[in-house]
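Let us work through a complete example step by step.
Step 1: write down the sequence.
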Amino acid sequence: MRTAAVLAATLALAPVAHAQGTVWRCAEADGRPHYTNIKKDTEGKSCVVVTKEVSVVSGLARGATPAATRAPGTQAATATPPNFPRVDRDTQRARDDNRRKILEDELATEERSLVDAKAKLTEQESVRHGDERNYQRVLDRLKPYQEAVELHERNVSAIRRELANLK
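Step 2: predict the structure and record it as tokens.
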């Protein structure tokens, strides 16, 4: 009986473990940080000790299914507490209508900005300065205008996707 209790306690605490060791943060050649707990990986690099003890918490309890292995569209079975606040349909509909109005206003603003950015780009493409005999100078001068057009095009498409996802 006592062995079963010890075994049950061990299984209950299995997802939480403490790994002893030092963790270093090293700068890669491209400037990105790299974290390691292997001392050999730090040799010849500028590394800083981040921590001496790391807590490792496993997201899997005995018999649980990780989110990555679940079928698409399925959710974990979690019960909503009975005292969880609910929103009535009219309030939610008003919120959704308000959100749609805000998104439509943002879309109109972004579309106007896109038209303005395209007009400025067209204007700059028609201008030719005397010191721009090298075509790369023309491209360098036009680049900010092209980037502005691309930015507004991305914003317009993102807002349209957001509007399409509304109920």
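Step 3: interpret the result. Residues 69 and 138 are 52 Å apart (CA to CA).
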